[in-house]
Specification:
The structure holds 2 protein chains of 2 kinds. By secondary structure, chain A is an all-alpha fold. Chain A is about 70% helix and about 0% strand. Chain A has one domain: ABC transporter involved in vitamin B12 uptake, BtuC, CATH 1.10.3470. Chain A contains 14 helices and 2 strands; from the N terminus they run H-H-H-H-H-H-H-E-E-H-H-H-H-H-H-H. Chain A has a two-stranded antiparallel ribbon. The longest helix of chain A has 27 residues. Chain A is globular. Chain B is an alpha/beta fold. In chain B, strand 11 and strand 12 form a beta hairpin. In chain B, the strands form 3 sheets. Chain B has a 6-stranded mixed β-sheet, sandwiched between helices. Chain B is built from 10 helices and 12 strands. Classes of the chains: A mainly alpha, B alpha/beta. The interface between A and B is large, with 42 and 49 residues.
């Protein structure tokens, strides 16, 4: 096990086989399951196989494009949620922030008559501002993320309803609806929004695994104090994580508007919990420091595939929620057990 | 006559108060090149406050710090680090879920050369891995793959990673706070060997420890802290283990004016622990 060197130093006393619980000596399938996205991927494939046997319509390009459209809003929110959960935080306010962003961009474009692109930029900026505020309260005032984002959930929710007068904004200019338009590959029609969502996932995966910022996000979630003592500006980095998440919620707002073609103040009320569900199903630990954002995409797809498949089978929608709940508990149990193994 | 070398790291008259509690009451400190200096003291003697001041983790209220005789001010651990002073913290300051190489470069990540690094901010993982492997083999620490998560390592192996990281980045001094406190007998021995190897590489080491056998095994000189001050700075061979403990508790004193002779300060206390019988009364 010694690192080979030119002079081959005498065996060090610290050269010893890894301790019990290490995976280096485990069979390949145990090691594969330890990669956090492998389990969720297997679950997704199993679910797809099952539904393919239950419904002829399940395995079609059109149906998968539909599933993707159904998960793109929550999926995009869940990218921001993943970043925050990796730092051992949590964000309950993301759905409400997104709803506010969508109302701001539609109302500014329709009622105020701002150029649509400017309205979009302002809407995303409002979301980024809320993310920044979350980050500042979590770091500078050192409040628990759960409480900060619970408060921000109510604030954003109320502001959304005050600003919109509880009215749905309709008659949107085409720039706001662009992401809902489609292009065709063969006879499958794909929305630009789905492509944008996948691109955001790939970008987040790159940043998290290949840049110093990404590795430090993991480090903060794994051991905040050690990360600080290593010379990482933990507070500034945490604020940047919440702010980036806010920008992502702003993009989710744009996707929401494109998908529904309106600015709806009542939108996204359960999306905060749905985004957490996607993160957890994707194998990211709620305790921070371990997980992967592509797992979150798989987690969002698992929920989407179950809803879609059960619908095709004619199962009432309340059972879809029941099954989602069971899946979440299974995912957290698996996480807990695998954490215990490696301790 | 040649000028005596200034100490690598020194402190003069450090004071630190926490409300009414005086943690440091004019403490001095001297670390020479190439030595392992043990810092011992009872609980509340101001050991950790002293070490934090030297590592930049706190700012003293008064007194001065000297690096190679030059006056310096450390406002945070980064300042101390810029002067080549690295600290291994007691609670193993590593991120358990991350791999060994990532931990060694945490906060000092290396990017790829060219546009991949400058534009895409891509990390140079192969280079960080090979550098980490080199640092580990320099200290003869073999740990298998460096892509292994730190949490899969034993306590001693983790301490090895922490020490290797400090030794890799330190240009001047390595400070170790209770590096053997959480370890078993065998692993403690391995960490002591590691400290000796760091010293062989020319880096002086400050070792804070409660463990007298460890102190007497590895240290060259012993700094004894009591009631917020350095009450003695002695050569390891000039005192016995029980005398060192007696100085720590105030039963004995060291007379620096008379060839560092140990003298009895508190006869009853000294007799109670059975030291100082041969020394004259003060």
């Amino acid at each position: 096990m010694t690192i080979p060197t030119a002079t081959s130093p005498p065996a060090s006393p610290l050269t010893q086989p890894p301790v019990a619980g290490s995976l280096a000596s485990a069979p390949w399938w145990r090691r594969a399951l330890a990669v956090p996205t492998v389990g969720p991927l297997l679950a997704l494939l199993l679910a797809c196989t099952f539904f393919a046997t239950q419904s002829d319509r399940f395995l079609s390009g059109g149906n998968f494009s539909l599933i993707m459209q159904q998960v793109m809003v929550v999926g995009t929110l869940a990218i921001g949620q993943t970043l925050i959960i990796l730092t051992a935080g949590i964000d309950l306010s993301n759905g409400a922030i997104m709803a506010l962003g969508s109302v701001v961009m539609t109302k500014l474009a329709v009622d105020t008559g701002l150029p649509p692109l400017l309205a979009i930029v302002i809407g995303i900026s409002v979301c980024a501002g809320f993310g920044y505020a979350n980050g500042m309260l979590v770091t500078r005032v050192s409040l628990p993320p759960f409480i900060v984002t619970l408060g921000m959930l109510n604030i954003a929710f109320a502001l959304t309803h005050i600003y919109s007068n509880e009215e749905t904004i309709v008659g949107l200019p085409s720039e706001l609806l662009f992401l809902g338009r489609t292009f065709s590959i063969g006879d499958t029609r794909i929305t630009y929004g789905s492509v944008l969502t996948i691109a955001l996932f790939l970008l987040a995966a790159y940043v998290l695994s290949q840049t110093a910022w990404g590795r430090r996000v993991y480090a903060i979630g794994s051991n905040k104090e050690a990360t600080r003592l290593s010379g990482v500006p933990v507070q500034r980095l945490t604020v940047s994580v919440y702010t980036v998440a806010g920008v992502i919620y702003g993009i989710a707002a744009l996707l929401l508007v494109a998908r529904t073609s309106v600015g709806d103040p009542k939108a996204g009320q359960t999306d905060n919990l749905d985004s957490i569900t996607a993160v957890v199903l994707g194998g990211t630990s709620l305790f921070g420091g371990r997980g992967a954002v592509l797992g979150t995409l798989i987690g969002a797809l698992i929920v989407g595939v179950f809803r879609n498949g059960l619908q095709l089978m004619g199962v009432p929608s309340i059972y879809q929620i029941l099954i989602t709940g069971i899946l979440v508990i299974i995912a957290v149990t698996v996480d807990q057990i695998s954490r215990r193994r490696t301790r | 006559m040649t000028e005596p070398q200034p100490p690598r790291l020194a402190a003069r008259g450090l004071v630190k108060r926490y409300g009414h509690v005086i943690a440091l009451d004019g403490a001095d400190f001297d670390l020479q090149a190439g030595e392992v200096l043990a810092v011992i003291g009872d609980n509340g003697a101001g050991k950790s406050t002293l070490i934090k001041a030297l590592a930049g983790a706190l700012v003293p209220d008064a007194g001065e710090l000297l690096v190679d005789g030059e006056r310096v001010r450390f406002r945070d651990p980064q300042d101390a680090r810029r002067h080549g002073i690295e600290t291994v913290y007691q609670d193993l300051a590593l991120a358990p879920a991350l791999d060994i190489a990532t931990n060694m470069f945490l906060g000092r990540e290396v990017r790829r050369p060219g546009p991949l690094g400058s534009l895409l901010r891509m990390l140079d993982k192969p280079r960080m891995r090979s550098d980490a492997a080199r640092h580990m083999s320099d200290l003869k620490i073999g740990l298998g793959t460096l892509t292994q998560a730190v949490e899969t390592l034993s306590g001693g192996q983790r301490q090895g990673v922490a020490v290797a990281r400090a030794a890799a980045w330190a240009r001047h001094v390595v400070i170790m706070d209770e590096p053997t406190a959480a370890l078993g007998v065998k692993e403690s021995g391995q960490v002591l060997e590691l400290i000796a190897r760091v010293r062989e590489r020319g880096l002086p080491v400050v070792l804070i420890s409660h463990n007298m056998p460890h102190v007497f095994e590895i240290a060259d000189r012993i700094h004894i802290q009591r009631l917020g001050r350095r009450v003695a700075l002695v050569d390891k061979n000039s005192v016995s283990m029980s005398e060192a403990v007696a100085i720590m508790t105030g039963a004995l004193l060291v007379d620096h004016d008379h060839a560092d002779r140990v003298v009895v300060a508190d006869r009853a206390a000294a007799q109670a622990i059975g030291v100082g019988s041969g020394s004259p009364d003060s």
